[in-house]
Write a structure and sequence with these properties.
By secondary structure, this protein is of the alpha/beta class. The chain has 2 domains: 30-201, P-loop containing nucleotide triphosphate hydrolases (Rossmann fold), CATH 3.40.50.300; 210-326, Conserved Hypothetical Protein Ylqf, Chain: A, domain 2 (Orthogonal Bundle). It has 13 helices and 8 strands. It has a 6-stranded mixed sheet, covered by helices on one side. The chain has a two-stranded antiparallel sheet with strand order 7-8. Helix 9 (232-246) crosses helix 12 and helix 11 crosses helix 12 (297-309). It is elongated and about 85 Å long.
Length: 328
């Protein structure tokens, strides 16, 4: 009944997110520029480029620099983090990508111990390579691939999953929960024995300028941009707006709210109280200073964002990969 009333009153929620004249977050550290230069230098030794991207934002945030400078090789686009995505839109995503010229698309969940899609990577790469020129390297039976992508989409996880699946070996590339873990193009990492295949890991590289504030916010929500560069409170507010826009009120039950809300301060206060995330601050009064305990809104915002990234707030892909106009 509560859900029925919430849906009936959906008009009271925001239909457009007010970015308040905010600037797009710029995050192009030195290691990104250096990494892109190294990628270009190593391209002559690469048979196929594997671009990995977050399935939640398949149309937002892919680095156009990759297409301009690295798309001269056979190309496979992997949309990762399927465990956090709404599979009902898969075919629509594929059709839209194909219209933009992306012909080879694969969906994966690299963190699963056994993902059937990971088993398809090597055969699919071989098929793609065999349909293209190998630049007078036909006698060389060793294959070299390069894995590219924006930060924190699962490049290192893909390498480790391929090694786990094809070689029964542990991880060879460091994995982290925030962008910027891989700092340089590494030496070749073996990912298959038959055929003999190696992958070059690369640092995540964002475009020097992100195309719009909305794209930047989606990237931030998916953990591609460091949270503090955008602001945890702003990211949390955009998440709340997205959930309400989709009619996904899972946060109400998770954080014991009375009803859905469009007020991020109210929601964060309830989260802080429920989780015991408080902080002591000094209040200045006319008769002296006193210490008071108040909700820790930043900690609550971080928990709210992390719950989304861990898939605890249901599926929100359709509201993330579609722009505000609800068109592609």
């Amino acid at each position: 009944m509560r859900l029925f009333h919430a849906l009936r009153d959906a008009s009271r929620f925001r239909s457009v997110f007010d970015f308040g004249g905010r600037e797009v977050a710029h995050w192009f550290p030195g290691h990104m520029a250096k990494g892109l230069k190294q990628m270009r230098a190593n391209l002559k030794n690469v048979d196929c480029v594997i671009e990995i991207h977050d399935k939640n934002i398949p149309l937002s945030g892919r680095n156009p620099v990759f297409e301009d400078t690295l798309n001269v090789k056979p190309h496979l686009l992997i949309l990762n983090k399927m465990d956090l995505a709404d599979v009902s839109n898969k075919q629509r995503v594929v059709r839209t990508l194909q219209k933009s010229g992306v012909q080879n698309v694969l969906f994966t969940d690299c963190l699963k111990q056994s993902d059937t899609s990971i088993k398809k990577v090597v055969p699919l790469v071989m098929e793609i390579i065999e349909k293209s020129m190998r630049f007078n390297r036909a006698e060389n039976t060793t294959y070299c691939l390069m894995v590219i992508g924006v930060p924190n989409v699962g490049k290192s996880s893909l390498i480790n999953a391929l090694r786990r699946t094809n070689l029964k070996k542990g991880r060879a590339s460091r994995v982290g929960g925030e962008p910027g873990i891989t700092k340089a193009v590494l030496t070749r990492i073996q990912v298959s024995e038959r055929p003999l295949m190696y992958l070059l890991d690369t640092p995540g590289v964002l475009p020097p300028r992100i195309e719009s504030v909305e794209t930047g916010m989606k990237l931030a929500l998916c953990g591609t941009i460091l949270d503090h560069l955008v602001g945890e409170d702003i990211i949390a507010d955009y998440l709340l707006y997205s959930l309400n826009r989709l009619g996904n009120f899972s946060y109400v039950e998770k954080y014991s709210l009375q009803e859905p809300s469009d007020d991020i301060q109210h929601v964060l206060k309830r989260i802080a109280v429920k989780l015991g995330k408080t902080q002591r601050v000094t209040a200045i009064t006319g008769v002296g200073n006193i210490n008071v305990t108040v909700p820790n809104y930043t900690a609550a915002a971080y928990d709210f964002i992390r719950a989304f990234r861990k898939g605890e707030l249901g599926q929100v892909i359709s509201v993330l990969w579609l722009p505000q106009s609800l068109s592609l």
